[in-house]
Amino acid sequence: MAPYESDDNTNEDLRTGRRKAARYVVPVAVLGVAAATIGLVPAFAGSGDPDLPEVTAQRLIEKIAASDVQQLSGTVKISTDLGLPNLGGLESSLGGGMGGGDDSGSSADPSSKLMELASGTHTVRVAADGEGKQKLSLLDKASEYSVIHNGDEVWAYDSASNEAYHMKDASAGSAEKGGKGGKDKSEDMPATPKELADEALKAADDTTSVTVDGTAQVAGRDAYKLLIKPKGSGSTVGAISIAVDAKTGLPLKFTLTPASGGAAVVDAGFTKVDFSQPAASTFEFSPPKGTKVTEGDELTAQDKGEARPKGGEDLGKELEGLNVIGEGWSSIAQFDTGGEGMPSEDSGAGDAGRFLDSLGDQVTGKFGSGTVFSTRLVNALITDDGKVYAGAVTKDALVKAANAAE
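^ that's the sequence the OP posted. Answer follows.
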């Protein structure tokens, strides 16, 4: 079945779309979000915005879930500003142990290379042809880093170091056999508006307001804007805006703004997009002559399932002793490290203690004392007796949770 073309589909089309949603990342449960949570006011185009048919937030979420875009190519611009401190010459002061010259790994390993997307502004070229062929390229001024998934082969190549990383995808299934390739290491870090939108929609429960906020044009395509906001106070998340392609239902742009205001924490959107089939050569790769090739572990179905936690319950199984305080956007993860907290200057840790003290804020309360390490989105309180409280919440919310736990 083709993706939703407009909002005058038949009831049978809608039922079919809901059944198809089970095949994709957005949980079917999202389609049943309570009416009190979903804004029922349809979108209206503002001055200069595309004039599109009215749509409700519930209908727009259904369009995202039913989207069946299998083939595309395009360019995505990703800007991330978590407000992390500038570590300056820390690497060299530690003797260069974090440099690329470490023989224990490969500079082309996706699990570390794609973490670069967590800060700064990057241009990423993406392409897909079904579930067995994907390519993601991180572009720099003078180099390119690519991850290519083609059937049961996964390659990553770093042109700057002329290194490649190779894995076998043991659980890949061909389109002809109806199989479904799973996740590869390139998907550990969400790098497209759709992946980011999928994660955000998992939080659409009764602690969330979901409305339609007009229309826009992204990468030359008409889109609706879905607005997601926490209902309560205490969260560092201000709002999430998702631009949804009016024709295909594919998220084209994702913007997360903090409750504190200012620039977006994450802003990822297509600047160019094409839904025609990419050339077969796009997904072909052979290491250039002289390339250092590192063979990675075989990527099995179990690995794919564990590549990224699906939610709070799965994460809780991974972290022994994890306790979740509160719910929704203001929830706080709490666990005990069993240690003595972070080293500080007062504890006699010397230069290392002074450096860590400079990164955090010292706080006290009924729980005792500790240090809050802050970004513009996620904050963490580490108490002097080794307890950790972390979440997308304010410093005051962390201190309150620590006091209540005593």
